[in-house]
């Protein structure tokens, strides 16, 4: 049973679409028996032909997918998948044969839009021209009107896609412009910050130099004061020391005075 087959989600989805197309074909051929008008039968048969063409493409896609997954499955699973593919091809071919029978019965054969079986398609241009010559004027008009309607719908879809693309492009351009302006402002602010940092560095260096100079001056003055104090202290402690010169402005120490008196007899 197909439901027992091991398939990945993508293969299972394709398989489900093929089965949906087969159900639509079965219902379509049942309705075809109830249609009495030959033109309506021809239109119904053409729609079924399109379904068969889509189904053929899905079977080919199913075949590609199971071949890509061949190395991941056991030989038994691969055989089951290939058997299912062959079963779907046979079922599709039965609808193709049924279509040919109806076309013969209707007696108004349309252009071959679907090649027999699931093999490669064959050139149909010459046969299409021959079969078109057998169509009535009304059928040619209906076919032409249908083609024009499909073309108009395709053009409208293309216009919508172009319009949406333009809107997305406009929105993207606006966003890019805003981001560009923002980046410009950020660059300007960075330049201003860099300039401020440079000026601050120069100011710090100047302050450092001034502080170093002031410290040197204060140290020099402190050494002078210490020297003067030391000299004063030494001079006071040892006033007779000749190695120490008198400090200008500082009076020499008062010599010791002796009292002279005359002793009387």
Structure overview:
The protein is mostly helical and 265 residues long. Helix content is 75%, strand content 0%. It has five helices and no strands. It has helices spanning 9-34, 38-68, 75-106, 125-134, 137-237. Helix 1 packs parallel to helix 3. The protein is elongated, with a radius of gyration of 55 Å. The termini are far apart.
Gross morphology: elongated
Task: Summarize the amount of helix as a percent range.
Answer: over 70%
* Secondary-structure element pattern, one letter each: HHHHH
Portion in beta strands: under 5%
Q: Strand tally, please?
A: 0
- Based on CA atoms alone, the radius of gyration comes out at 55 Å
Total helices: the number is 5
Topology:
Elements: H1 9-34, H2 38-68, H3 75-106, H4 125-134, H5 137-237
Quick structural summary:
Helices cover 75% and strands 0% of the residues. By secondary structure, it is mainly α.
Q: What brief labels describe this structure?
A:
265 residues, mainly alpha, elongated
């Amino acid at each position: 049973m197909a439901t027992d087959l091991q398939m990945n989600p993508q293969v299972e989805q394709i398989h489900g679409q093929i089965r949906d197309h087969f159900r639509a074909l079965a219902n379509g051929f049942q309705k075809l028996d109830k249609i009495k008008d030959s033109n309506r039968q021809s239109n119904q048969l053409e729609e079924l032909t399109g379904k068969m063409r889509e189904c053929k493409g899905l079977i080919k896609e199913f075949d590609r997918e199971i071949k890509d997954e061949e190395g991941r499955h056991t030989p038994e699973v691969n055989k089951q998948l290939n058997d299912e593919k062959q079963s779907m091809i046979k079922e599709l071919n039965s609808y193709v044969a049924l279509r040919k029978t109806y076309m013969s019965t209707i007696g108004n054969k349309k252009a071959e839009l679907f090649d027999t079986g699931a093999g490669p398609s064959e050139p149909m241009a010459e046969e299409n021209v021959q079969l078109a010559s057998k169509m009535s004027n009304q059928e040619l008009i209906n076919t032409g009107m249908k083609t024009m309607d499909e073309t108009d719908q395709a053009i409208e879809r293309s216009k919508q896609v172009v319009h949406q693309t333009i809107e997305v492009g406009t929105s993207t351009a606006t966003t890019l412009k805003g981001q560009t302006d923002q980046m410009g402002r950020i660059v300007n602010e960075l330049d201003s910050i860099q300039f401020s940092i440079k000026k601050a560095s120069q100011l710090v260096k100047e302050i450092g130099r001034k502080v170093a100079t002031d410290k040197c001056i204060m140290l020099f003055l402190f050494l002078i004061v210490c020297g003067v104090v030391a000299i004063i202290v030494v001079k006071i402690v040892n006033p007779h020391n000749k190695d120490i010169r008198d400090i200008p402005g500082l009076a020499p120490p008062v010599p010791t005075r002796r009292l002279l008196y005359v002793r009387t007899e």
